[in-house]
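Q: Convert this sequence to C-alpha cells.
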Amino acid sequence: MRRSYLAVFTAAAMLAGMSTRAVDLKDIAEASMLVSGTIEVLPDGSVGSYALYKEEKLPAPVIDLIKRNVSTWKFQLKTPSTTPIKEDMSLRIIAKDEDAQHMTLRLAGANFSDGDSPESSSIRWQHRVSPLYPKFSLDHGMSGTVYILVRIGRDGKVINTGLEQVNLRRYVPDQKEMARFRKDLADAAIKVSRRWTFETPTSGEEMQAPFWDAQIPVDFNAERGNRSGESYGSWAIYLRGPQEQIGWRQDASLVSEAPDAVPDGSIHPVGAGARLLTPLAN
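A:
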C-alpha cells in the first residue's frame, strides 16, 4: 500500500498511551492501531458514507487519514444490488518514524464483511480452545499475534490450517531469534486450531458450500496471558512479519485480504464482503 501523507507531529505525542515498559523506543520499528467501523457501499461500488467505532477514542491524525482516503474507494459487490449495502470494516493503521521529530501514518490493510447478513448465514464459533503459551516465548517475555487461515468442513471441524503472518511486539536484534519466536508462536496457534469447532451457515448463498475458509488471529500476551495486547484507540508496538504463502489456498486474488486487519477474537470469512478495487491509500 502506498504511503498516504506525512503527519507533522512528534513521535512522543504519537506514542502517548502506548505501553513501552522495558523497551528502547529506537528499537520500535512501527506502531500500530486497529480501527473498526461500518461503511455504506452504493450499487455502483462507490462509498456513500462511513462511521468509525468509538471515534472519540481515536487520534485526530488517524481520523483525518481515513477521511482523506475513504471517499476515493471503489468496490466490487459480491452480489449486484439496487440498494446500498452495509459492510463491517476493520483497518490497520501504521505509524513509522521518519526522523527523530516526525512520523508517517499509512493505511496498511483493510477487511470488509457483510454487515447486514443474519448470523445464520455465516461461520460462528461453536467451541474455541485457547492455546497454551509456548515456553520459549513466555520465558523470554515475547508477545505477538499469529494470523492463520483455517478451512472448515461441513461438520464444523477444521480440515486444514495455514500460517498467514506473525507479528511480534518486542524487538530482538538477532534475526534468527526473531524467526524462532515467530515459529514458536505459530506452532502453538496452529496446534490449537485443530481442536476448534464452528457453527456453519444454515441460510444464505454460502449454505451449500463444500467448505469455508476463514482468517482468525490468535493473540499471545506475555504480560496478560492470552488476552489481546491492543487497547482500542491506542498504539501498540508492531514488528510485522512476512505474509506467508499457503499452498492449498485456491483463489490467489484473496491474498490481498490483509490478515492483520482482522480484530482479535473474530472470524473473517474469506471473500465474504465487497472487494476493494482501488488502492487503499493514495
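The chain has two domains: 5-119, 123-234+242-270.
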